[in-house]
Design goal:
Blueprint (H helix, E strand, L loop, with lengths): L1 H4 L17 H19 L1 H16 L17 H5 L8 H24 L12 H6 L12 H13 L15 H4 L14 H13 L4 H7 L1 H21 L4 H9 L2 H9 L4 H16 L3 H12 L9 H11 L7 H30 L5 H4 L12 H15 L4 H4 L2 H24 L4 H15 L8 H5 L9 H25 L3 H25 L4 H5 L4
């Protein structure tokens, strides 16, 4: 209002809007509406939304709903809409078909949306694809039920690092995977308090509390949609392409949104931390890594990227390996101290303590054949079993293989830190997280998103991108087949797998036919 106090000043104030909003707020609203309209105008966005709608319809089945939903007496909503038949053999077939067709449509839309010849992925597609499943039961995993039980444990004044869901008997414990009913929480204190906050909104409804765990996941994907393209552009990679390959990836829709995994928040915070570090805000970036680690502890590996960016920003770095080693140690100590101090402060504020440390072994109790070391050890164990060897002999290969895997993983992370981080900090962070996934004793499909999403911000060759697409389709198919097995209709899942393979082949052929210029030049124009 200063211009009204100065004689002769010309006012630049904008007239009030019809909604009584500040002009800047009105401008943001108009741009958001325009972005939503442009996004919805894309036929592939509508196709993907239809696919996710079919997935939501297919989720009304015993594969995803609580075990007693279709038992007599059936759930009130199931009875009200006459859906009891979905729990029968015919109903399982119908819901499985809906699920498989829905995921096939989503994959097809994603592949067709691949940015080529100036065509970019619509900025708000992730929101349209997420909305249909927001009220669906947790998909492709029961972890959201564990989150709800852990939040309930805190609300009752108990220590989630000391007791498991068994201590909140009833609806909150009943839907937790039996493997985890007696195990305490391995997650960071910030994640547990967020779960507590969500449960406090619906304290008497375990199912709704589990479904509501999608709220922080959806917010995290929105943050990723903002930060990942900007991080990519700072390293000369198309932001639209990063949005397509990373945020719109079907695995994100399946597991971050569908499964409501807390890993979404961790990955979003890591991406923001790297974006801040790339802008020279190294201390704030380290504090953000601490927040990510307070959600899931593996985020601490992102410190590798911050140290790499600190090296790049150091103008007086002398040449030679010795000088680089000293600088890396110095930056590692400084920013590591910031991470530790911030993590300790978050732990103090949450009031949950450090009980997660002994609980880190909890996930390892699961034998995951997706893990390469566990698969190798289990294969050797199987041959020993059929060879008639005693138990004390055939019980050794799995822990030995897992130990070797961890050692190889640590060696790979060390090599990446030394050789890759100073040249490409984002790639180093992604590689370190992926090395941890590949070498760990347990591997779930959503673990690959820890580092896989960051690869979208890295300049890739056409072959490397095809590998990412292939891995995405493999684990999408794995999730669909796994769900069909639970539903007792595994043959449909195999059919979906064959379709995914045919679709990938057709997409590669079309991409080659449409290539009027080198692939890298089209996908990754230099800025």
């Amino acid at each position: 209002m200063l211009e009204h106090r100065v004689a002769g000043a010309t006012t630049t104030a904008h007239p009030p809007t019809s909604w009584g909003l500040d002009p800047r707020v009105e401008d943001v609203k108009d741009r958001l509406v325009a972005a939503l309209q442009r996004t919805w105008a894309d036929p592939m966005v509508r196709r993907g939304t239809l696919g996710m709608s079919l997935v939501a319809a297919g989720s009304i089945s015993p594969a995803f709903l609580p075990a007693d939903t279709f038992e007599e007496p059936a759930s009130p909503l199931i009875q009200r809409f006459g859906l009891e038949w979905l729990g029968t053999g015919a109903g399982r077939v119908v819901t499985t078909i809906l699920l498989a067709v829905g995921m096939a449509l989503l994959v097809d839309a994603w592949l067709r949306m691949r940015p080529t010849h100036g065509r970019g992925a619509p900025s708000m597609a992730w929101l349209f694809w997420s909305l249909p499943v927001m009220l669906a039961p947790p998909l492709f995993s029961r972890d959201a039920y564990s989150y709800a039980a852990q939040g309930k444990i805190i609300s009752r004044g108990m220590d989630p690092y000391a007791v498991g869901p068994f201590w909140v008997p009833g609806p909150f414990a009943d839907q937790v995977d039996p493997m985890w009913v007696d195990t305490p929480a391995p997650y960071g204190p910030l994640a547990l308090q967020v779960q507590h906050g969500v449960v406090s909104l619906f304290p008497d409804n375990a199912y709704v509390s589990a479904v509501a765990m999608r709220l922080p996941a959806l917010l995290a994907v929105g943050v990723l949609a903002y930060a990942l393209p900007r991080l990519a552009e700072r390293y000369g990679v198309s932001g639209r392409h990063a949005l397509w390959l990373g945020v719109l990836n079907p695995l994100v829709m399946m597991h971050f949104i569908g499964g409501a995994h807390g890993d979404a928040v961790m990955v979003a915070l890591v991406t923001v931390a790297l974006l801040l570090a790339s802008r020279g805000q190294l201390v704030v970036a380290s504090m953000t890594i601490a927040a990510a680690a307070a959600y899931k502890q593996t985020a601490v590996l992102a410190l590798i990227g911050v140290v790499g960016m600190a090296l790049q920003a150091q103008a007086d770095l002398a040449p030679g390996a010795t000088a680089r080693f000293r600088a890396m140690v110095r930056h590692g100590l400084v920013h590591g101290a910031v991470v530790l101090a911030t993590f300790a402060a978050i732990t103090e504020v949450t009031g949950l303590g450090w009980g997660w440390i002994p609980n880190l072994s909890v996930p390892v109790t699961l034998r995951s054949l997706l893990s390469p070391p566990t698969f190798v050890g289990s294969t050797v164990e199987w041959f020993m079993r059929i060879g008639g060897m005693p138990e004390r002999v055939y019980s050794a290969p799995v822990p030995i293989a897992q130990t070797i895997g961890l050692l190889l993983g640590l060696a790979a992370i060390g090599w990446v830190t030394w050789r890759v981080a100073p040249r490409n900090p984002v790639l180093a962070t992604a590689a370190a997280l992926l090395a941890l996934c590949a070498s760990g004793p347990v591997l779930h499909p959503w673990y690959l998103l820890w580092g896989g999403l960051l690869l979208a911000a890295v300049r890739l060759s056409a072959r490397q991108e095809r590998v990412i697409i292939f891995v995405t389709l493999f684990f999408v198919t794995y999730g669909v087949v796994d769900a069909t097995v639970v539903n007792g209709t595994w043959a449909l899942g195999v059919s979906a797998a064959l379709w995914m393979a045919a679709r990938l082949r057709a997409n590669r052929r079309r991409a080659q036919e449409q290539a009027d210029e080198p692939v890298l030049a089209a996908l990754f124009p230099r800025r």
